[in-house]
Design a protein that fits this description.
Layout: E1 6-10, H1 23-26, E2 47-50, H2 57-71, E3 76-79, H3 89-97, E4 100-103, H4 108-115, H5 119-130, E5 135-139, H6 141-144, E6 149-154, E7 165-169, E8 177-180, H7 189-198, E9 203-207, E10 211-216, E11 220-225, E12 229-233, E13 257-261, E14 266-268, E15 274-275
Parallel strand pairs: 1-5, 2-3, 2-4, 4-5, 8-9
Antiparallel strand pairs: 1-10, 6-7, 9-12, 10-11, 11-14, 12-13, 14-15
Helix pairs in contact: 3-5
């Protein structure tokens, strides 16, 4: 089934009131608030911001309130969902009425621990599959928790070592990829490559900061923002020791492939074809 809704996965540190974005000074194509403006097509559309991943939801609310007011959004509010809210009619109604649900950054494990397999997630999945124009968005941890398989914990070491990554089930909005964020700034190539070698059927999506993929029809992903998205493919790996390597030993792989997307480029997750920016 082709979903009628859209996904917006953001690499973190998107242009907002608290961001110190180096690309604003360096990239001549930088557009202020380019990514967050994608949250709704009309400034009066309802946005529910879910701060469950954050250990400081109050500061998260202040920052996004200031940013959304700068953009001109008029209809938004915040939810810090936890167990006690999972069966609340009030919260269900708010999610049902939303045009966009936006997961902030923090800890992807907190989002999954609180929401995975809940009735709230069932409702979000139903809206994403069946409601035209509905958008599920997430930044940083909020983007990492979107796929069916997510990076729960991993090392950024000089070598890819067996057992230095933990992969767990995610929220299952998309099954064709595994997502990592702050990808360039925090040097996360090794851990996403490791995930891609372990799951060669899935695209590894490394999102740079102030950079996003807008995914439509469940498979057409267009890059937006001032940085880049690195796509890692293990689909054509020839030689690797991933199945025989012992704990603590390094992993190798032959023919691991990498693609780079910038603003306006589109990748088709069904067949791997890329459409360059106009």
């Amino acid at each position: 089934m082709i979903p009628k809704g859209k996904l917006l996965i953001i690499g973190g540190n998107e242009d907002r009131s608290d961001a110190d974005n180096e690309m604003e000074k360096q990239n001549r194509d930088f557009i202020p608030h380019e990514i967050l403006k994608l949250l709704v097509s009309d400034k009066d559309d309802r946005i529910e911001v879910i701060t469950t991943a954050s250990s400081e939801p109050e500061s998260m609310r202040r920052m996004y309130r200031e940013t959304f007011d700068q953009i001109g959004f008029t209809n938004y509010d915040f939810l810090h969902l936890c167990d006690e809210h999972m069966h609340s009619d009030h919260y269900f109604k708010r999610i049902e009425d939303a045009k966009t649900v936006f997961f902030t950054g923090g800890d992807q494990n907190k989002i999954c621990d609180e929401l995975k397999d809940s009735a709230i997630i069932d409702l979000l999945l139903k809206k994403y599959k069946n409601e035209n124009g509905f958008l599920v968005a997430g930044t940083s941890a909020g983007a990492m928790c979107m796929p069916s398989v997510i990076i729960s914990d991993a090392e950024n070491g000089e070598a890819i070592l067996d057992a230095d990554i933990k992969l767990v089930p995610g929220m299952n909005f998309i099954s064709s990829c595994i997502v990592d964020t702050h990808f360039i700034h925090r040097g996360r190539f090794g851990r996403l490559a490791h995930a891609s070698i372990l799951h060669p059927d899935k695209w590894g999506v490394g999102l740079g900061e102030d950079t996003a993929l807008l995914i439509e029809n469940g498979h057409l992903a267009r890059c937006k923002g001032s940085g880049m998205v690195v796509i890692i493919s293990g689909k054509e790996i020839q030689q690797t020791n991933i199945q025989s390597v012992e704990k603590g030993e390094p992993v190798y792989a032959e023919n691991l492939k990498v693609h780079i997307l910038t603003d306006g480029c589109t990748i088709n997750f069904n067949d791997g074809s890329m459409i360059p920016a106009e």
